[in-house]
Design a protein that fits this description.
By secondary structure, the protein is an all-alpha fold. The longest helix is centred in the N-terminal third of the chain and has 24 residues. 0% of the residues are buried.
């Protein structure tokens, strides 16, 4: 059996390689006049989101009472038997 290699696929691969090579080389030559910038973790963080936190206005006693209500509701929802 003599297998024939399709020339169209080889030509397409060469064209694709040429396009990828030129595409990858273009940004390198365009930005070569700039000095590289060192990035740190702070550069990768998104900007902080500002929002109104209603819990900051509660007193410690109010926060304790609120957390107690949340715990009781969770126990009741789970059917633990502690809350009937």
């Amino acid at each position: 059996m003599n297998k024939r290699v399709p020339t169209v696929s080889i030509a397409a691969a060469l064209v694709a390689f040429a396009v990828i090579s030129v595409t990858m080389a273009a940004p390198v030559s365009a930005g070569s006049d700039q000095t590289p910038r060192t990035l740190g973790w702070q550069d990768l963080l998104p900007p902080p989101v500002e929002f109104d936190d209603p819990f900051t206005k509660l007193t410690p006693d109010q926060l304790f009472n609120l957390s107690s209500v949340i715990v009781m509701r969770r126990l009741k929802a789970e059917g633990s038997g502690l809350m009937t």
